[in-house]
Amino acid sequence: LKNPVLVASGTFGYAQEFQRFIPLKQLGALVTKTITKKPRHGNPPPRIVETASGMLNAIGLQNEGIEDFVHEKMPFLRKLGVPIIVSIGGETVEEYVALAQALGKTRGVDALELNISCPNIERSKRLVSQDPDATAHLVRAVRRATAKTIITKLSPNVGDIVSIACAAQDAGSDALCLVNTFLGMSVDIVAKKPRLGNITGGLSGPAIKPIALRMVWEVAQAVRIPIIGAGGIMNAEDAIEFLICGACAVCLGTANFVDPSASIKTIRGIAEYLKKNKISNIHTLIGSLQTS
User: Fold this and answer.
1) What is the pLDDT of residue 117?
2) Given the residues 118, 177, 248, 251, the one annotated as active site
3) In DSSP terms, which residues pair with 35 in a beta bridge?
4) CB-based contact 83:110 (threshold 8 Å)
5) Crossing angle between the packed helical segments 132-145 and 161-170, to the nearest 10 degrees
6) What is the mean pLDDT of residues 197-225?
7) Are 86 and 228 contacting, i.e. CB atoms less than 8 angstroms apart?
8) Per the omega criterion (within 30 degrees of 0), is the bond before 179 cis?
């Protein structure tokens, strides 16, 4: 990456929506909306609710499917001159494998992000990322199906995220992204009804940053592979905290809704911090937290 700032899946569309706001080629990398094998209509509205220091979303992975993505979205994306990370999701391991195989043949795709942690899809069982064995099984299957870089995105809705991270690493994931959103809800006290059509959704934004930061720090001490930190990063100072705690890069998500240019401002802010503190190599900043 030319810099450590990415835009998170589901918060940046397919980049075309942002091209009139920022110079896209300055991004460290771009993570697409999660793509599924077949088109998904998503959850019933309302889908987004503002909360104290954050927001809840229950989009439900609405997308047009892999065929549309390859033929309609990739021609634009591959011209941007930045790494393209395609987020993929599915209901079965076989669907992830099929997506990985299809995207492995697609020019311009630099990496795959395995979204095994989205909390707003209707499922009969736990999320894959809530079970170390299920996580390892899925990552291992995708690893056999593609030579592309694999980034596994983990859920914070677990008791022990370190064990899940280690399972993904040992199964062949090249990197980790943590964390996805926290499961939450909001209630209209007049109507006595949920404010989201899906009842529950994923909480993101500044409200989750302290917990996400702690999880990145814990996992960074246990794994050998790179970590992309995510969760409430709104500016350069937030991003630098994640780098100091062990993340090699960061993803901005909710910040893109607040300020479309947040990612570019964060890139510039990190550069200014490095210059001010006479840090010539950003790698010396990564994992530099002093705890004694």
Assistant:
1) 82
2) 118
3) 88
4) yes
5) 30
6) 98
7) no
8) yes
CB 25 within 8 A of CB 82: yes
C-beta separation of 201 from 120 below 8 A: yes
- Residue written as token pair 């075309």: 16
Check if the beta carbon of residue 227 is closer than 8 Å to that of residue 217.
no
The H-or-E segment that residue 138 falls in is helix 132-145
- Tokens linked to 59: 């989009």
pTM, full prediction = 0.96
What's the pLDDT tens digit per position in 113-129? Answer: 999 986 655 544 678 99
Q: Is residue 233 classed as helix, strand or coil in its secondary structure?
A: coil
- Alpha carbons within 13 A on the beta-carbon side of 288: 11
126-149 in b/e burial notation, b at 16+ Cβ within 10 A?
ebbbbbbebbbebbbbbbebbebb
As a 3-state breakdown, the chain gives helix, strand, coil percent values, each rounded to 5, of: 35, 20, 45
**How far is Cα 251 from Cα 179, in angstroms, rounded to an integer?**
10
Cβ neighbour number for residue 63 with a 10 Å cutoff: 24
The crossing angle, in degrees rounded to 10, of helices 93-104 and 132-145 is 30
Q: Please check whether residue 239 is in contact with residue 245, taking contact to mean a CB–CB distance below 8 angstroms.
A: no
Q: Is 177 a catalytic residue?
A: no
Q: Tokens 């170390």 belong to which residue?
A: 132
Q: Is 107 helix (H, G, I), strand (E, B) or coil?
A: coil
Joined together, the tokens standing for residue 166 give 């280690």
Distance, CA of 146 to CA of 144 (rounded, Å): 6
CA distance 65 to 78: 18
Specify which residues 193 forms β-bridges with: 188
Q: Which residue has the tokens 């509205």?
A: 45
Q: What is the pLDDT, as a whole number, of residue 120?
A: 53
Res 124: pLDDT: 46
